[in-house]
Write a structure and sequence with these properties.
The chain is elongated and about 55 Å long. The protein has 227 residues and is α/β, with parallel strands linked by helices. Helix 2 runs parallel beside helix 3, helix 6 crosses helix 7 and helix 6 crosses helix 8.
């Protein structure tokens, strides 16, 4: 049904959320620290994040900022704080929704179910320039003509499409795309795969329109995207 990462340092709360969601058919990854959550997020496909704010190794907002820098997944924050400023800071970092502790597990499940219903009904096709990418079928087309991609190229393309006009550092790409495969890779691997993707999507490889280098910082998808 969907993969959910629960970042909550209170074991009883974490266990209760996980048990309830798993009972409703979801796959749940559990973490008690920001560091642990970052490792899990980098190594797995996650559709939704449930994130506590106060954690033993930092603020949950740090993790929200990290996730939002590389992914557009839905984020629900849990907090014992209940002030307007707390909500504003959370939304500014990229949170999509909030629940104040103590909260109802039934209400949390309803929020999760509402998100996945919307996700399943959303258009799975992303259009950018003259490219059209079907996320469900993992197919890329230009003007109706199929462009074959490898699994790694698909993952790389989706990361760019999820973050148009945003610079992605080499470390972000390494963590999100390549480390999840469990293989050792270096920065040269990124350059090789981006070159291969460019060769397939760029009208003129010498003057790239989609994936551009930002000297000393990383790469950017230099086109708007729409669903």
């Amino acid at each position: 049904m969907g993969n959910i990462l629960v970042l909550e340092d209170e074991e009883s709360v974490r266990r209760g959320i996980a048990f309830t969601l798993e009972k409703n058919g979801y796959t749940v990854f559990k973490a008690g620290t920001v560091r642990e959550a970052e490792k899990i997020f980098s190594a797995n496909e996650v559709d939704l994040v449930i994130c506590d704010i106060t954690l033993p190794d930092g603020s949950g907002l740090d993790f929200v900022r990290y996730v939002r820098s590389i992914s557009g997944v839905h984020i629900i924050c849990l907090t014992a704080l209940d002030s307007e400023m707390d909500y504003v800071m959370g939304y500014e970092q990229g949170a999509d929704d909030y629940m104040t502790k103590p909260f109802s597990l039934s209400v949390l499940v309803l929020k999760v179910e509402a998100f996945f219903r919307k996700k399943s009904s959303d258009n799975n096709i992303t259009v950018s320039g003259d490219l059209s990418f079907n996320r469900q079928e993992m197919k890329l087309e230009r003007n109706g003509k199929l462009i074959p991609l490898t699994k790694t190229e698909c993952r790389l393309l989706m990361m760019f499409l999820d973050n148009p006009r945003h610079i992605l550092s080499k470390n972000q790409i390494l963590d999100r795309i390549f480390d999840s495969e469990g293989d050792f890779v270096d920065e040269n691997t990124i350059a090789v795969n981006i070159r291969r993707l460019r060769e397939k999507i760029e009208p003129d490889i010498k003057k790239p329109e989609y994936i551009k280098n930002v000297r000393g910082l990383g790469y950017i998808w230099d086109k708007d995207c729409r669903m």
